[in-house]
Specification:
Length: 427
């Protein structure tokens, strides 16, 4: 048996930081990340045979739990038919139809391989469609590692306290305007000055990448109104919330119709699939219908579309009811455990994603997030991990649950909370 420490040592020799996505390295919380060997339902098992209740769910995709029988069956059937055609196939049409049928403002979609590609392509399309260069994003929102979108991004950049990143040129970032999240007057001000130069506003439909910081009532509607008034596009990034916040994503909750939407995670069922879509008159500007170029060798991959379709089709009302139940139970129990040891905190929700902030105050933007006592999370995290609960290894990420989190799994988490809360109190 190769232990996690041995794997990590080998990994660090051949891969920067030993990981293929930064937050996995435990940089914010320290220690050796367990290397996973297998997964089933709500559980991950590491290479040493230790089992964890998984509260990341692959950062969103595993909404039905790991190795859901219907998803496995669909993928195995697809595997028998071939792994990549480089030509159109029916599964791509069915997945696109499934998305379009769920979300009224999405009339057409283009499939891609990652959320990063989806946002990158949506921004290019918005610029091509409007003939404008500037884009507006919010501090603490993460939209993948697109050059122009890494300014004041959340997720790994927040975890590692990076304001932005070397390797992005002034020209690439120069057209990106960043304003505080949930601050409509700040958006109004920018548009009053240079509204006719702005191609789009992009926002996480309900942020999870600075922890869960939901939009204040009217915020998304305000963005829609301001962009429409100035001839800019409103892009809602639903990579995390899409088909998780409801069967039609965050749109199903607030009914604010974006011009373009980006998806990933759940719609790929654990495979690399993502999408962007929206108004047909805008989407028609994409090649080969229109002049804005976008392409992909593996886009619409038959294994990924099979997994995504099977996942979406099994997201029944019972699935969403269970996500609500598990996330509200866990949030309540985390809160009770922390209150029990006198630690000031808030549990916040973006739909069924949630996170705990160590503060008494409402957290509505990235400044608020950074003002929290996030150092308490390290002790909390490690005690949970020791007891077999796998939380995001960063205080600036959301927790994800699945419909496979049954009472046994939930109770294992609850039983681990008092010691973790005591750790947070002592920090
Ligand atoms: N947008 C959002 C809201 C995300 O949460 C993420 C990834 N966590 C992305 C875009 C990028 O997706 P990917 O990691 O698949 O490139």
């Amino acid at each position: 048996m190769t232990t996690s420490s041995q794997w990590f040592e080998r990994a660090q020799k051949v891969t920067p930081g030993g990981v293929n996505s930064p937050v996995r390295a435990f940089g914010a919380v320290g220690g050796t990340p367990p290397f996973m060997a297998s997964a089933s339902g709500p559980y991950l098992t590491d290479t040493e045979g230790k089992e964890y209740v998984d509260l990341i769910c692959s950062w969103g995709p595993m909404i039905l739990g790991h190795r859901h029988p219907a998803v496995l069956e669909a993928v195995q059937a697809a595997l028998q038919r071939g792994t990549s055609f480089g030509a159109p196939s029916g599964g791509e049409v069915e997945l696109a139809e499934e998305i379009v049928a769920r979300v009224d403002p999405v009339e057409q979609v283009r499939l891609v391989n990652s959320g990063t590609e989806a946002t990158m392509s949506a921004i290019r399309l918005a610029r091509g469609f409007t003939g404008r260069n500037k884009i507006l994003k919010f501090a603490g929102c993460y939209h993948g590692h697109v050059d122009a979108l890494l300014a004041s991004a959340g997720s790994g950049l927040a975890t590692f306290a990076l304001p932005d990143t070397p390797g992005v040129t002034g020209a690439q970032a120069g057209d990106t305007i960043v304003v505080p999240y949930n601050d409509l007057p700040a958006v109004e001000k920018v548009f009053a000055e240079i509204g006719d130069e702005i191609a789009c506003v992009i926002t996480e439909a309900a942020p999870g990448n600075m922890g869960a910081v939901p939009p204040l009532p009217g915020f998304n509607a305000g963005l829609k109104e301001i962009t429409a008034r100035h001839g800019a596009l409103f892009i809602s990034d639903e990579v995390m919330t899409g088909f998780r916040a409801s069967r039609s994503g965050w749109y199903g909750r607030d009914q604010v119709a974006p011009d373009l939407v980006t998806y990933g995670k759940v719609m790929g069922g654990g495979f690399p699939a993502a999408a962007f879509g929206g108004r047909a008159d805008i989407m028609q500007h994409l090649a080969p219908s229109g002049p804005v170029y976008q392409a992909g060798t593996l886009s619409g991959n038959p294994l990924a579309t099979a997994a995504g379709l099977a996942t979406l089709r099994h997201c029944t009302p019972e699935v969403y009811a269970r996500l609500e139940e598990v996330s509200s139970t866990l949030g309540r129990e985390v809160s009770a455990a922390l209150s029990g040891v006198g630690v000031a905190h808030r549990v916040q929700y973006s739909g069924t994603m949630f996170s705990v902030f160590f503060t008494e105050n409402a957290v509505v933007d990235f400044d608020d997030v950074q003002a929290t006592e996030s150092y308490r999370y390290t002790a909390f995290f490690h005690e949970m991990l020791r007891q077999g609960v796998y939380l995001p290894p960063s205080p600036f990420e959301a927790w994800f649950v699945s419909a496979s989190h049954d009472d046994t799994a939930v109770n294992r988490v609850i039983d681990a909370l008092p010691a973790a809360a005591a750790g947070a109190a002592a920090a």
